Amino acid sequence: MAHHKVWITLPDGESHEVGDLAFGRASADGRCPSAFRYSATWLRQGFSLDPESLPLRPGEFQASHLAPPLAVFADALPDMWGQHIIDLTRSLPISQRTQERYLAEIGGHALGAIGFNRPVDRFDPRLTLSLDKLAQAALDVDAGREVNIEASRLFAHGASAGGARPKILISFEEAAWIAKLPSPHQDRGFDVPLLEYVSMQIARECLPSTPETQLKVLAGRNAVLIRRFDVADKGRHHQLSFSTLGRERALNYAGGYDDLARILTRHSADPREDLSRLFTQAVLNAALGNTDDHLKNFMMQRTPGGYRLSPPFDIVPNIGRNIEHVLAFGLSRYAPERHTMMELGLRWKLTAEEAAARISQVTNCVAGFSERLAAADGSLDAHSVLLSDIATRTARLAC
Predict the structure, then answer these.
(1) Model pTM greater than 0.85?
(2) Is the Cα dihedral 62, 67, 73, 77 positive or negative?
């Protein structure tokens, strides 16, 4: 049995207790009963944590583990990298590596606005360890080497970050950032941080909401720093993944971009503007070969006017030679041709002129990928396979 108080920290820095999350005893078949209930105070003055599954009303919302309707709490949990850091620093046996345990361990270190048993940690611009030491500790963990004492600090600086690649949460230039690091045993000879840096620079030209990025050398390797968009000046922005809003179960990867559009139309405070931004992001993913475009990689953020599409993130060509996108463009998961993207835009109520302009804008920017990579001292020979794929994809969209 486990019981947790759920907190939320708003952009103005005010924190509120929003309800109670409880877990029962796991059964022999692996199920673990769970339930959430809003507090009486939050019912009077708050908002729904998940407009799709957790309407602001009295009573219990029941599930197993953090499956729908409780998936918004899973959005605050770490993915593979963060779980590995928790396993390492807490010496967790396999039997205790559960969502319930990770939730308890993450506490106030979560991404987004939700904290467990205490509010999320306030952003502190003071850095207690050097970036190089934190980066080296993360690289040591990724490589399976014996780690030094600094690795124990990775719990605070990296356990809440999602994804499978090494990364750390840092304070830099009076702001909060995620620093994404290389992983020699995963990177197949590519400079993945540099590829993401170039991709995010291109995305920023097409979508001005794209977070600021910087390229830095940490522990002797390239690292891409991406400014966190969940951190406000004084507090945090509440956010939900499209996986949660779509009530996706066990990441079944059965959806398409049209499913994202339907979710957006249902919950966005400005669906026309957000659909235009989502269409641009879909074209960008198609042109770059960002095939890891699952529902967890798209989010909505709560603003004073309601929920809006979040800034784009995890924009990078796929180095695993996965030619199929997770999300389908209409009926196909392969690199789309121009007419497929035009049809997608028209279904989303863009005019033909708007859809064509977005496609041209993206393909013109992506066409300069090689030049940008070379300007950042990236090796064109080492990335020739990816560059060839990008050229083929942009040609299909330009025809």
Answers:
(1) yes
(2) positive
Nearest Cα residue to 134 out of 118, 149, 113, 119: 149
Which residues, in sequence order, are CB contacts of 332 under 8 Å at separation 6+? 340
Look up the CATH number of domain 239-398.
1.10.1070
pLDDT, one tens digit per residue, over 257-301 is 999 999 999 999 999 999 999 999 999 999 999 999 999 999 999
pLDDT in tens, 195-244: 999 999 999 999 999 999 999 998 888 999 999 999 998 999 999 999 99
Q: What's phi and psi for 194, nearest 5 deg? A: -65, -40
Cα 288 from Cα 373, distance rounded (Å): 13
Helices within 15-144 (DSSP H only): 40-45, 71-74, 80-90, 99-106, 131-143
Q: How is residue 281 written in tokens?
A: 């992001």
- Residue 356 to residue 352: CA distance in whole angstroms: 6
Average per-residue pLDDT in the chain?
A: 89
CB contact at 8 A, 225 and 216: yes
Strands 239-241 and 299-303: antiparallel
Q: What is the DSSP string of 353-395?
A: HHHHHHHHHHHHHHTTHHHHHHHTT--TTTTHHHHHHHHHHHH
Residue 47, sorted as left (phi over 0), alpha (psi -120 to 50) or beta, turns out to be beta
Tokens 């066409």, located at residue: 367
DSSP-based three-state secondary structure for 305: coil
Our CA angle for 73, 102, 229, nearest 5°, is: 50
CA proximity to 328, closest of 337, 317, 318, 336: 336
Distance CA 13, CA 370 (A): 43
256 token code pair: 């398409």
Torsion, Cα of 243, 246, 318, 187 (10° steps): 10
Of 253, 254, 392, 280, the C-alpha closest to 344 is 280
Q: Pick one of 3.40.190.10, 3.40.50.620, 3.30.70.240, 3.30.200.120 as the CATH number of 131-227.
A: 3.30.200.120
Q: Is the peptide bond before 78 cis (omega within 30 degrees of 0)?
A: no
- Domain spans, the chain: 2-116, 131-227, 239-398
